[in-house]
Design a protein that fits this description.
The chain is mainly alpha-helical. The chain has three helices and four strands; from the N terminus they run E-E-H-E-E-H-H. The strands form two sheets. It has a two-stranded antiparallel ribbon with strand order 1-2. Helix 2 packs across helix 3.
Length: about 140
């Protein structure tokens, strides 16, 4: 049986219900969720670390580095750090290449985190629009 669009997976702690009442469409708990339980989670569309965190956290998974887990520094931007080659490659594939080129162009200055976040969101949106447009051309 095909699951309707927007329906929750069978193991989800919530169910999406539509109501014509005053609340409209909303999430309703399908089972008890205790204190500290996760009702729903979503990966961020874009994220940017504060300047103080850039040197100590992986730019992809946000884990703290140091001690037994040294962070690898991006050779192009000299700012981003990663806990491994896999995360560095994943960030690059997700669009960090645009930011790395921009950061290298303005070095040694660096835009504030809010501007870097806005740029990441716009680059991701542009990548999506470009992908959709190229799919239509084929």
């Amino acid at each position: 049986m095909e699951r309707p669009s927007g329906a929750a997976p069978d193991d989800a702690p919530w169910a999406l219900r539509r109501s014509d009442g005053p609340l409209g469409r909303h999430l309703v708990a399908a089972r008890a969720i205790g204190p500290g339980g996760v009702a729903a989670s979503q990966a961020p569309y874009a994220l940017a670390l504060y300047d103080a965190d850039e040197a100590v956290r992986c730019g992809h998974c946000l884990r703290l580095g140091g001690g037994d887990m040294p962070l690898l520094r991006c050779t192009k931007s000299k700012r981003a750090r990663y806990c491994g080659r896999q995360h560095q490659a994943a960030a690059w594939a997700a669009g960090f290449r645009n930011e790395a080129a921009a950061l290298a162009a303005v070095a040694p200055r660096c835009p504030p985190p809010t501007l870097r976040l806005a740029a990441r969101a716009l680059w991701r949106w542009a990548q999506h629009v470009w992908t959709c447009a190229s799919d239509l051309c084929m």
